[in-house]
Amino acid sequence: MGKHDPPEAGHEASLVRPYTLTAGRTTTSVDLPLEAPVQTLQSALFHRWPPDDMRGKIIQLCVHSPSVAEISARLDVPLGVARVLVGDLVTSGYLRVQPTLTDRSSRDERRELIGRTLRGLRAL
Fold it and tell me: What is the CATH number for 93?
């Protein structure tokens, strides 16, 4: 495909640079490990987001508790953008970040994380 050719069918080119979605911010005050599952809270399901609003897309994805890295991959945005947007939604009370593994995590918790990771990779 040449430099001036239109994008392939079914793959729309974004007219908005990714970091304009975060107003140039690259950090968040929320602790967001890449493997952390993110869950939509009930309050978010009643909020009406504009059709193309990235926050609404994140809310819908998080009904299934994906990881921060999976959100980034599924929405095709840089990880830093996904982290800032998820952090904003956590701070606003729309999402909850599930705890990840610690030194005291059980064998079952570790196995569950590995399973979620594999399911997420297969889904991509």
Answer: 1.10.10
Please report whether residue 52 resides in a domain: yes
pLDDT 10s per residue in the chain (124 long)? Answer: 444 444 444 445 454 676 677 677 777 888 888 888 899 999 888 888 888 889 999 999 999 989 888 898 888 888 888 999 999 999 999 999 987 777 788 888 888 877 877 776 676 5
pTM exceeding 0.90: no
Domain span at residue 68 reads: 28-99+106-123
> Is residue 75 assigned to a domain?
yes
Helix/strand/coil (H/E/C) assignment for every residue in 71-101 = HHHHHCCCHHHHHHHHHHHHHCCCEEECCCC
Count of structural domains within the chain:
1
